[in-house]
Amino acid sequence: MLIYIIRHGETDGNTQGYFQGWTNDPLNERGRALAALTGRALRGVRFDACLSSPLDRARETAEIILRESDNGGVVVTTDARLKEVCLGDWERKKFRPGEREIDGEQLKLFFENPFLLGGFPNGETVGEVCARTQSLLKELLRRDDGKTILLVTHGFAARAMLNCLYDEDGKRDFWHGRVPPNCAVNIVEGVGGAGRLIAEDRVYAKE
Questions:
Q1: Which residues, at least 6 apart from 59, have a Cβ–Cβ distance to it below 8 Å?
Q2: Could you give the 3-state DSSP secondary structure of residue 141?
Q3: What is the pTM of this model?
Q4: Closest to 149 (Cα-Cα) out of 204, 198, 181, 187
Q5: What stretches in the chain show pLDDT beneath 50?
Q6: Which domains does the chain have, with CATH numbers?
């Protein structure tokens, strides 16, 4: 089986530099264009099913990708395990230099290795996000039914899900080198109940 794991398209939160988490921001116009370009690049891939985070930016990305990839007959089913990390008190706080509203040392841990940060005030822990996202991935892999599945999620959630497939460095480098770009595509091949990452952060949406 093949599992396509895609981050949502761009939002105003992405361009303005604030944390979104469970904040339900929609895609902006560029985000819709990125999703459409990604969908067109995936023409020829036949998706048997699509699961999306219930947050609007992911669900809309899923709908656009399915339509533009000629998979418009596939129904988008939402699954809460694909939601972004709940950031609690960090939601909608700015993080860029000169504008940041969060302690600099905590931000450094977030962007370098969130495992050392542990969790977010009044939000989730990194371990909780890994557990819920990986439970879905492992559930799909156990089916081993030869299907091709589209999952649309978020940057932190995607890295948390895939962390169980990274080598040991994944425990030290949560981001695996970088935050995945908007509409980045990761592909997991499932054989015999196990998963193998065969494509990482492919960006088809090149304008």
A1: 52, 53, 76, 78, 152
A2: helix
A3: 0.96
A4: 187
A5: 207
A6: 2-202 (3.40.50.1240)
